[in-house]
Fold:
Amino acid sequence: MESVNEEIKQLCEQFRLGGIYPGLQQAVQQAEKDNTGYGAFTLGLLKAEAEHRSRKDRERRLKTAGLPAGADLDNFDTTVDNGLSPRKLSQLRELNWIDQIFNVVLMGPSGVGKTRIASGLCLDAVRAGYKAYFRTMQDIVSTLRTKDAVPSQNTEYRRLLKANLIVIDDIMLFPLQKEIAVAFFNFINHVYENASIVITTNKAPAEWAKMLDDEVIATALLDRILYRCEIIRLSGESYRMKNRKSFFEKQND
Structure:
């Protein structure tokens, strides 16, 4: 029996059936106890393998998504008045706009929840089975600069080209050099017809030309992003400033 178990283990490793062997002995004992037929027993093993692969796939997609901590919108405080009603947030979380290849622009000052909402939508998309990625604008710039010289960045670039959803956080926070502005336009031009794009920004579209130092590129970029797009203007007091921490103990001075 021991030699049989070892051979089964080796074959599971050879065929990469990581979900079958760990629970095999328990499955055999349960089948003997329940007098399970061969078909039902085999089906149980295959279901275990399917669940194992599904779990591993979710873990892989979550890892490559690059989500910041605290992205889960289930914990989002919908009582805060930031210009996005709970009803609209619920509609966004249904993710129908991804299937329709619609974009979302979250615009507003710092601290009103842009990144929180964008990362939460990305997490929802990953859980729903989409290839979704959260990247800062600086991440994108770094990839564009080095993709032809660094293999890992080339892999990252090709991964983004195959995405269903790309979140770009803090777009146009800093000015872009002409070479990078052109590369960024080419990137958006490659993906906008096949992937939804969520953008967070504190700059109105009219200000993008200044950040790119090129009105033609800015116009062409906005043309692709805004063609099928929902612009959501967030407002209100900065959550971070409202809940600012201090290392001094509260006391009467």
About this structure: The chain has a mean pLDDT of 86. The CA atoms of residues 181 and 238 lie 30 Å apart. Residues 38-65 form the longest helix (28 residues). The chain has two domains: 2-64, 66-240.
